[in-house]
Amino acid sequence: MLFNSTIFILGFLPLTLLGFWGLSKLRLTQGVMIWLLVSSLFFYSYWNIFSPAGQGKTIEYIFLIILSVVINYSIGAEISRSKKSSRRAKILLILGTILNLSVIVYYKYANFFLDFINSLFYTNYQLDNLILPLGISFYTFTQIAYLVDAYRGELKKEKYNLPTYGLFILFFPQLIAGSILRHDELIPQLRSFKNKIFSSKNLSLGLIFFTIGLSKKLIIADTLSPWVATIFNNTSSLTFIDSWVGAISYTLQLYFDFSGYSDMAIGLG
Questions:
Q1: What H or E segment, with its residue span, contains residue 117?
Q2: 266 touches 259 (CB < 8 A)
Q3: Is residue 125 part of a domain?
Q4: Burial code of 36-56, b = ≥16 C-beta within 10 A, e = fewer?
Q5: Among 194, 227, 259, where does a domain finish?
């Protein structure tokens, strides 16, 4: 589900805001956390369940990210309970890091290694329909950073529960495209009482940022996209001027694409 898609703007976002508004009016602050966690999980699951790009359903990836969150939370808790920089803490950190990196290596590079083995030994090993899980790099490296902070003893004074940690990893404005966050950057904001109360001022600021970002994406980046595609598809017949126009257009497209997405994420947050 993309921020500029119709289903997000007219469906997911209004329903999420409505639930947030209702729970905050009732002062159900813990309910707000659970609602945002469930909403973020659905945001992630939409791509896997409905396969809008026609890539095939990958429902198992929903369980993959849930399992990843639970395992890393548990390892982080065990590291935090261990003595700072102790042998036990170090072993747990190494174990957690290996587990996280193994998942990335499998989904990103398994077919690459199999192709290499096939070319070397004339075999025909294949992993059919291996699709890269959405946002796997961001949520995996965020959790590795969390384990490192636990090893450094930075979590000993914190009492993070599983829903709070889960929302830290799954929070939908930053789940798909990052950035890689530290726990002390986001979790205090998620736990802040005032951030769980609906505010018309925050809503207005959020809508302004979201609209600016959406305008950058739709009006500038998407308008430049056909120009760039045409130039890149006809590289053999480009003139000097065409080449410079293509290079500048591509640069501006990338900038306004990422800048627009960042503004939309800030507005949503």
A1: helix 87-121
A2: no
A3: yes
A4: bbbbbbbbbbbbbeeeeeeee
A5: 194
Assess if residue 132 is contained within a domain: yes
Looking at the structure, do residues 91 and 187 belong to the same domain, yes or no? Answer: yes
| 19 CB burial (10 A radius; 0-12, 13-18, 19+) | middle
Joined together, the tokens standing for residue 173 give 């404005």
pLDDT at 215: 92
Structure confidence at residue 24 (pLDDT): 83
Kindly state whether residues 176 and 250 are assigned to the same domain: no
Both 136 and 100 in one domain: the answer is yes
Q: Decide if 212 contacts 173 (C-beta within 8 A).
A: no
pLDDT along the chain (269 residues), means of 10: 81 88 83 88 79 63 89 93 88 94 86 79 73 81 92 84 89 74 80 70 87 91 86 80 85 89 83
Range of the domain at 248: 203-268
